[in-house]
Structure formats: structure tokens, C-alpha cells
Write a structure and sequence with these properties.
Elements lengths: L1 H53 L3 E6 H11 L7 E9 L2 E10 L2 E16 L4 E7 L4 E7 L4 H16 L4 H7 L1 E2 L2 E2 L2 E3 L2 E5 L1 H4 L3 H9 E9 L2 E8 L1 H4 L23
Length: 256
């Protein structure tokens, strides 16, 4: 009789021990998961902070050919009235030449500009230029004999009456899908190039990882100041998000 009681007591003790062990293991697993989450979180925050301190901006040089190839790829090919758009880059200024076919008039014009600002990031893609010379009409003709002389007369009259070059006004008057090709304030022209870049997933993903803060003109090259975004480069995502979340808990594996 006492043997039976002893055996029963032993089984009960074993069951209790197993239960305690299971609870302890569960608590250990939760603590282990939380501990690693804190460790990885500290690494992520510390790395982002250190990286930002170590690298603020880097300088990247683009050749004149690379810039013109990009203009052709992302602007000229996407604007029907543009036949050509080319930059000749000099030290501190550039010469912009473009050929357009609009309202029955075929024209090639050129003008000189300063680069006021260049911004390329995930939110804004903008080129800002200040016109520093009058527009030179290189070629102008039309199938209707009277349109070319009328265009020349209109340009001369605009300059005489306003004392300004008509190029900013003309560019603002050109509508692409209902939106002005450029905006302007005085002799400063704003070109929002994001309308042609936003459809390119590769470009937009790149701008999440590194943004162009500004640019400087040197002879036949464009120097870009680029700020890397290490969080997106390493796909760390939201710096406040958990590295390991509840979905990584082994107890939840296989659950729908």
C-alpha cells in the first residue's frame, strides 16, 4: 500500500517538475527573444548614428556626355515636341540648346544659364536655372511662310516692350498633359523633372538610398553632392521598428 503511495507521489512530482520546466523554458524563450531584439535594435540605432556622423556628403562627378545621355533618356524621349536637348557645361555656367517643333514652327534656340539649385531625393526632383543671356535663335522655319517671320517679330516685340527675354514665358506657355513645361520667377526657371522620373522604379529606389543635395558646374562635368541614406542602403527600414517581432516567435510558426 505504501509502495503505491510512493509511486503515485513520484509520478506527481515528475509531472510538476515537467510543468515547471516548461514554464521556465517559455519564460527563457521570451527573455531570449526580447534580449536579442534589444541587442539588434541597439546595433541598428548605433550604426545609423555612427554612419551619419562618419559620412555626411560624397562628391560624384558626371561627364557632360553622361548628363546629356540622361537628358535624352528621361526628358527628350518623353516630350513629343522636343527633338533635341543638349547642355554644354563650362566652369560655373552652361549653354542649353534645344530644338522644338510646336504650333507648326520648327526652331533651334540656345541660351546661357547658371545652375541655381539641383535637388534629387525621394520627395523632390527639381532643376533650377538662372538665365544669364538672351536667347539666340539658331534656326527657325515653318511650312507656312508667314509663321517664321511672325515668330521673330513676336520675340523682338516682347523684348522691346518688357525689356526681358521671352524664353521663360515661352517655356511656361508650353503645356504637357495640361502642366506647364517649366515655371519661372523673373529670369529664374524651375523645371520639375520628377514627372519623368517617378515612373522609373530603379531611379526612385536609388533616390531612397542616396539623395542629390546640390550640383556644381565645372568644364565638361557636373559635380554632385550626394548624401547616402544608410538605413535604406542596408534595408533597415524604420529605425524605430522592431528587428525581431512577434511573428518571429517559434511558437507561432505554422499558425495561419
Amino acid at each position: 500500500m505504501s509502495m503505491e503511495n510512493t509511486n503515485t507521489t513520484d509520478f506527481s512530482t515528475d509531472a510538476t517538475s515537467l510543468t515547471d520546466t516548461s514554464v521556465l523554458a517559455g519564460k527563457f524563450g521570451d527573455g531570449f527573444l526580447l534580449g536579442w531584439q534589444q541587442i539588434f535594435g541597439n546595433i541598428k540605432h548605433s550604426y545609423s548614428k555612427v554612419a551619419d556622423n562618419l559620412v555626411d556628403e560624397i562628391l560624384v562627378s558626371l561627364s557632360q556626355k553622361q548628363v546629356n545621355d540622361a537628358l535624352y533618356q528621361f526628358v527628350t524621349k518623353n516630350v513629343g515636341l522636343l527633338h533635341n536637348l543638349k547642355l554644354d557645361i563650362h566652369d560655373g555656367w552652361l549653354r542649353l540648346t534645344c530644338t522644338v517643333d510646336t504650333m507648326g514652327i520648327f526652331a533651334t534656340v540656345a541660351s546661357n544659364f547658371e545652375l541655381v539649385h539641383l535637388q534629387l531625393d525621394r520627395h523632390t526632383q527639381r532643376l533650377v536655372l538662372r538665365q544669364i543671356s538672351n536667347t539666340e535663335v539658331i534656326e527657325l522655319h515653318s511650312k507656312q511662310w508667314y509663321k517664321a517671320p511672325a515668330a521673330r517679330f513676336a520675340v523682338a516685340s516682347y523684348r522691346l516692350i518688357t525689356g526681358k527675354d521671352p524664353l521663360p514665358f515661352i517655356l511656361n506657355s508650353i503645356k504637357i498633359k495640361g502642366i506647364a513645361f517649366t515655371e519661372h520667377k523673373g529670369d529664374v526657371i524651375y523645371l520639375e523633372i520628377g514627372r519623368w522620373l517617378k515612373g522609373n522604379e530603379t531611379i526612385m529606389n536609388t533616390l531612397k538610398k542616396a539623395q542629390v543635395n546640390t550640383g556644381t558646374l565645372k568644364t565638361q562635368q557636373l559635380l554632385l553632392k550626394i548624401q547616402p541614406n544608410f538605413g535604406d542602403i542596408l534595408s533597415l527600414g524604420d529605425p524605430n521598428a522592431d528587428i525581431i517581432s512577434e511573428k518571429d516567435n517559434p511558437d507561432n510558426q505554422g499558425k495561419k
